[in-house]
Amino acid sequence: MLWLLSILLLCGPVTAGAEWSIEKLSDSAADEGLYTSIAVAADGNPSISYYDATNGQLFYAVYTSESWQHEVVEGAGADVGMYSSLAFDGSGRAHISYYDYDNYRLRYAYHDGAGWHIETVDEDNGTDVGINCNIAVGENNMPHISYYDYDNLELRYARKDSEWLLETLYTGMFFEQGDFNALALDGNGHPHISYYDYYNGNLKYSYYDGSTWQTEHIISGEFDIGMYNDIALDAEGRPHISYYNYDTMSLGYTYYDGMQWQIQTVDSSADVGGFNALALDADGNPHIAYLDYDNYNLKYVHYTDSEWLIETVDAGGNVGEFCSLALDSHGIAHISYYEYTGAGSGDLKYARRIVTPSTTTSSPATTTMPGGGGGGGGEGGSDGGEDAPGTTTTIPAGPTTSTTTTVSADEATTTTVPDQPDSASTTTTTINPQQPCVLEKTVFSGNHTALQLLRKYRDTRMIRSRIGIQIQSWYYQHSPEVEQIIASDSTLRRNLKQLLWGVILRNAASIYDDDGTLYLSQDQYNEILDILETIHGASSPELRQIIINLKVLLGTPHMRAQFPITVQ
Predict the structure, then answer these.
(1) H-assigned helices in 79-133
(2) I need a labelling partner for 345 at 20 to 30 A (CA). Which of 217, 304, 362, 411 fits?
(3) Is the predicted pLDDT of residue 418 greater than 70, yes or no?
(4) Phi/psi zone of residue 159: left (φ > 0), alpha (ψ -120 to 50 degrees), beta?
């Protein structure tokens, strides 16, 4: 089943960006630029930490003297660097937290001006700790890190004094607490953490008041709110949080105005908001970088003069994952992000906003938001579709009706596919002729609803675990061979399409239910085995071994804990 899921995880239409300077900082056959984190020094020069998946290395890139310099922080003999998080201290020196994949532990590196020093923060006797770590640097240049304990389903927090002090903040019992989390420090050096409660589907916020931790539910009455959250504090120490609303497939934003939480939908023009990153400018106005899932574009929104302005930053390929945002002293946005280039390779990219674009203003009256003279309320929506190249869309603060339309600027063709098999109802979907995924070409003949759903499954579940990342990597390496096998067998194509409809779409709610279990009938399970055997029989020796390994993994308790499958 996991092999079939992994087959579905690549696709992304293309549009165009505008008013941004964009650079590709790596350009090789390696898979570089995942888990990026960006920070801007006092001199305005950006630095980026990132992961090289091919070589299992943590990299650090710094812009100096009109060029980028890259160096390996750690990686010789170990697979390290996932979930990297970068921050500068008061002396302008870099601190990075990251995950050691080989040893399942949280690592930390800092630069003292002469070289890198590396420490293990938490290894907890073999427990899998350290994924989704986030770092901030406080008084005396001491680091604070929030992170997730995968084996115990716990949100954890570490700070360094003379030694590392570790705390378990919240335990999820049977479900995750804190898998998605973000960290910021207030003026007193006290930590504030936003995080996702998987069991209740809630965005939560916790802070240390000097003596104990205080916890609040931010949003109630809605489900699946808070994935990919990020947090920033304004000059008064009040929290601002961006997040992905899975329930409405939109980018959300909330802040505390001193009396209550103000909540707004920022962008609902498509399935948008994954991998969001938040920063506040000197006036307290929010800026957010995020992924457009439907088109795999990088987008950016900022609040100014009582309105939200949305821009498409980069639509030059399959771009926008692992984006990170920082503002320099002039309030100019700098974004690092990943571009998947195909066949198991990818590149680190960097964008800097260089021109204030023209705007097109929507008609409903706007409501004041932070930085504009007070608190806002209600929800904003997009009255139209995807941003056209070179334009900025203004989102009104009041409630609006949203209609999603997919538009491509690179002459992508448009096709119509049924919402249900043999159904008269249709959905118009834009197809990217430059980089369609395997099943888009061989099974569904277009960017089908099943592909969109599984792409989200990858981003919200698979890449959150070691085994999921490994399966994704296998797919990248072997997708050309799998595509050839599927394309050469019409019966296999037909059976695979029917299976995917039955397992994925008709069990969509089960994929995201409380315990994450995917329920299969015995017939569906047998069909999965038949398809695996067909692929196995037509494959190269290397791919046959991968399929054997997958069957072994499916039978292990740890695999079933990460990707629960029940055969009924």
Answers:
(1) none
(2) 411
(3) no
(4) beta
The residues with which 16 forms a beta bridge, in sequence order, are: none
Most confident residue range from 167-176, 274-283, 477-486, 508-517: 274-283
Q: What is the pTM of this model?
A: 0.70
Q: Any residues with CB less than 8 A from the CB of 455 and at least 6 apart, and which?
A: 8, 9, 10, 11, 293
Residue 537 three-state SS? helix
Tokens read off for 546: 């991968």
**Token pair for 455:** 């792409």
Tokens read off for 282: 């000197």
Confidence of residue 478 (pLDDT cuts 50, 70, 90): confident
Residue 504 is classified by DSSP as: I
Q: Strand 565-567 and strand 518-520: pairing? A: parallel
Q: How far apart, in Å, are the Cα atoms of 32 and each of 125, 304, 337, 528?
A: 30, 35, 10, 33
Check residues 310 and 559 and name the one with the higher pLDDT: 310
268-to-180, 246, 497 alpha-carbon distances in Å:
21, 11, 30
Residue whose C-alpha is closest to residue 303's, from 375, 225, 237: 375
Q: Which amino acid is residue 476, in one-letter code?
A: Y
Pairwise CA distance, residues 61 & 50, whole Å: 8
Question: What pLDDT is stored for residue 551 in this prediction?
Answer: 62
- The pLDDT score that the predictor gives to residue 87 is 98
Instruction: Check if the beta carbon of residue 35 is closer than 8 Å to that of residue 322.
Output: yes
Strands 307-314 and 191-197, by their bridges, are unpaired
Distance CA 441, CA 474 (A): 19
Structure tokens that stand for 122 in this block: 């938490």
| pLDDT tens-digit series, residues 336-371 | 999 988 767 889 999 999 855 444 333 323 333 443
Nearest to 341 by CA among 35, 33, 56: 33
